[in-house]
Design a protein that fits this description.
By secondary structure, the chain is of the alpha/beta class. It has 13 helices and 14 strands. The chain folds into two domains: 141 residues, Aspartate Aminotransferase, domain 1; 240 residues, Type I PLP-dependent aspartate aminotransferase-like (Major domain) (Aspartate Aminotransferase, domain 2, 3-Layer(aba) Sandwich). The protein has an eight-stranded mixed sheet, with helices on both faces. Strands 10-11-14-13 form a four-stranded antiparallel sheet, with helices on one face. Bound molecules: pyridoxal-5'-phosphate (PLP). The site of pyridoxal-5'-phosphate (PLP) has 14 residues, from helix 4.
Amino acid sequence: MQIQLAQRMEAMKASEIREILKLTRKPSVISFAGGLPAPETFPVAEMQAVAGTMLASRGCEVMQYSTTEGEADLREWIAGRMNGRLGTSVEASEILVTSGSQQGLDLTGKVLLDEGDEVLCESPTYLGAIQAFTAYRPRFVEVPTDDDGMLPEELAKRLAGCRRPKIIYVVPDFQNPSGRSWSLERRRQVRDVASRFPVVIVEDNPYGELRFEGVARPPLKAMDRHGQVVMLGTFSKILCPGLRLGWIAAPVELLEKYVLVKQGADLHTSTLCQRLAADYVRGYDLDAAIGRIRELYRRRRDVMVAALERELPAGIRFTRPSGGLFLWVELPQHLSGRDLLVRCLEHDVAFVPGGSFFPNGGHENTLRLNFSAMPEPRIEEGVRRLARAIREMLADTTVPASA
Ligand SMILES: Cc1ncc(COP(=O)(O)O)c(C=O)c1O
């Protein structure tokens, strides 16, 4: 029988890169490909204690269905933390607990996008957002970025040329994939440009708390004067991703729409996981735990940056992020990240080719490296292998006259 799939499935293709990366599961491979937090930072013993007490005292309650919006005390805690740390002024009633911030992206598409609507995003942007929004069949409009973030004049130009711009999707802190963070000035400028159009700014902020140095900049959400910013947050990078806990902070009228679509998606986020997180943050020092994560990732960033500086052939540029999990490499124009990955697998090292992070294609000469998940000696060895593969490719390829 020929099963007739929904038309949206035409745009949803299994990524060829994902298939290649399956080869990286061998223990001999040093993988800079994933976006995994370091498992040694997970609070296993603490969670065991929290779960034991919780199940003994309220086992039936925490195994029951719950409200779509989320556990009241967890919503309070999230709003309080956002306001205290980020300078926002959100109420608990403006928080919806989600199954990871990835669900926040999918629900955003469901609430806001009709086929052909425009999603403006940084170039490059987060692959998971491209995947989530693609199901709603928008047109992606990439906005050029530099080291300070999205270029406001380019955003204005593109917005003016859009027919139905709905979403500006941004990751201003330690972006996945580039590791870049926006300057304060850029944040203000982008907010000002956006305020002239009927669009929602979706500010995705999984990495803001993972700053290794320098001064934190306020999120767009804290600068929002028109109720235009929806912020996505997550416990994945500050606690552990397996809980699948994130949140949406949005003005109440919009949040009500999110609640409606979440009901249809999964009724509510796991009661058990929400209770685990709520009891954990009440009983333990989350800030101290985040401090340890930052310290570990800063060391790993330092080791990777030093190894890249030492090993890479001249003329290859890469970012030096002040936080987060990733850095971004630009190869000479004529080299392809995809070809390099194939070659790197022969050397037992892997990364994600950067072309995947551009919804409209191109930029094949780029790559994303993760520095959070590998012990330092493996990072050094992995960079040595990567550099060897690049040198081989440079030796094999002749530069086209136009390059
Ligand atoms: C920018 C960005 N947004 C969202 C997510 C999804 O995170 P989660 O669903 O675990 O909260 C990720 C994960 O890597 C990410 O990098």
